[in-house]
Xanthine dehydrogenase molybdopterin binding subunit (Kocuria oceani), 793 residues
Amino acid sequence: MTSLADRPVNPVVGVPVAHESAALHVTGTALYTDDLIVRHQDVLHAWPVQAPHAHALVRDLRTAPALAVPGVVRVLTAADVPGVNDAGTKHDEPLFPSEVMFHGHAVCWVLGETLEAARLGAEAVEVDYEPLPSLVTVAEAVGAGSFQGGQPTVSRGDTATALATAAHRFSGELEFGGQEHFCLETHASFAYVDEGGQVLVHCSTQHPTETQEIVAHVLGLHSHEVTVQCLRMGGGFGGKEMQPHGFAAVAALGSVLTGRPVRLRLNRTQDITLSGKRHPYHARWEAGFDESGRLQALEATVTSDGGWSLDLSEPVLQRTLCHIDNAYWIPNVQVHGRIAKTHKTSQTAFRGFGGPQGMLVIEEVLGRCAPLLGVDPTELRHRNLYVPGQSTPYGQPVRHAERLRTIWTQLLDRAEVERRREEIAAFNAAHPDTKRALAVTPVKFGISFNLTAFNQAGALVHVYKDGSVLINHGGTEMGQGLHTKMRQVAATALGVPLETVRLAPTRTDKVPNTSATAASSGADLNGGAVKNACEQIRDRLAEVAARKFDIHPDDVRFVDGTVTGIGFHDRQMSFAELAHDAYFQRISLWAAGYYRTEGLHWDGARMQGEPFKYFSYGASVSEVEVDGFTGAYRLLRTDIVHDVGDSLSPLIDVGQIEGGFVQGAGWLTLEDLRWDVSDGPHRGRLATQAASTYKLPSFSEMPEEFNVHLFEQATESGVVYGSKAVGEPPLMLAFSVREALREAAAAFGPGGRSVGLASPATPEAVFWAVQEGRRALTADAEGTPAPATTAAH
């Protein structure tokens, strides 16, 4: 077996190719879970009965009126569950609850011959609720002592002493919002019992194995009696890692009880009100710097809003603490984490998985403190970047730390930052009511699951007698291009053209016990497993070819569908011929591949270890223009240099970097989740339930000039074909947009003042930041001190 990172001659990896379903996407012929129902007869449709309270007891549930509605077939309640009435892995998420825990909580589900019949049936169900007091905000939960899960701490050094002796000491707090996944495809499941008695669930899920396990335990079955298939998803972003399980279980339960296929697809309002989001956070921090502006200490308490149940809140919080340093060396650290329990949707995984929330805290610290230190924010960030030999607060060496400074320098050069700063200064001097600014921010993001056991994957590869190849792997496709990369890996490992490799849908009866497609690890894990399976087959085929060519198997070469030997110019055969010959020699042409990430260890109780295989690095510079009258802004230009190792598929990777950046900019500047926090009848109701009230980034929010460059000569050893993950790290590149907005708002003031900026930095928030700068300017003119925004001594 060859080294995992080595590439053969003429590899298919590294070649820019289109997404394997691109033509299907743009022609509208790509099938998704909900498209499959047209192939079945007598399909029933599911509709939830959603509670109108944030917190209440279900005193009585009368389903008879629903059954009187024409077309209603059955109402599913807790009494119908033959197994465990729970949709989670921690048994804190009742599938049919007796206690409502958030506004919109589904207390039962109606099955109808048509969607309209199910909807009318749901309206007819009579429920008696006893409203209870509710906690809707993080502040309310903290005040009530309402927490759930563990409260981890990451620490290093003597923070108290370092703060006490620091030349400069600052403190502050920040509250920042969550984010709705808003996948183009909402949650969808389609279940039926096949001719062999197997429960088959088609599901839009990032974690088919866990969906299988939850469906099985709700139905009181073993896992081998349930098969889950994921054809593709119209977006996932983490929202389909944990949250699909309950919806799949409802569809499967309905199918088992009625003997008919059941389709459950949420409409947009149901999807937003029933499913979890990125965790909102509150952070309180204190930081110390030396005379040269180098960080000496950080003490912080971060509180995430977990919603009503744990879901993935604990690992999300752990990753927050593991990324609160971002790309900066902080010798003394003490950060406490806790999870607030509130009466809202159960917040869940979202691209970055808590990492963005931690990194936002340290970027806030540097952005607020730079003017107080009298240091340019870009220089302050550069001054504090990790260097080789340093390690993270949890003890992992920062390998290849030199790449951070190389990327930084390369970015400043490619983006012509020095020249543009002169132009910005001239523009600002000539425009009193419009200001421009640019900011540069780095990213260091750890790749692997914090839970070490999840860092494994399997694959099943078939070579047919005609030389064609079919691959199965445990990863799921949500538009990110994983399947495209896996085809390229298989074609490279077998030495065949890409067009001879086909990929089958992800199914739990083909590759079992898979991990979620998450943590940016899909290509690393599944690529390793696919490569392993292909190499098993190739090694067997090499034995056959060696006998034919009378050479050693190690001297056989597979290139572009042709099999030959080292130095051969007159003897060769096609891969198809070799496969045919191997079959008649009774040589196995299929293999199960397996991969486990080596060199990982994590002690979650002590928050110490080396949980990540490597770090992905990157940096971005963004330039904005702010209108001083309204706070409205334009994103004029963004330049990115990002490290993806040796890219498996450059076209896919550039697309992921662009998309991740824009999604991050949406979280930081536009997307504002609002719940009703009044004491009225709609307390706890999500007010932003549609695209009309929840602003998503669109084409108009793209940078007017957008330049993405893949960092070169960046082979990563020990990873499939030397590549690095690309799914999550680019989202955090959007910090440069928020910091540019802060600097533009500060440009309306006298300089040297710390300007606060809410998150998300909506035009309204930017307007108030501009006003803060202007007040400081007025205070300077009048000779009176401006209100302090950050304590310092």
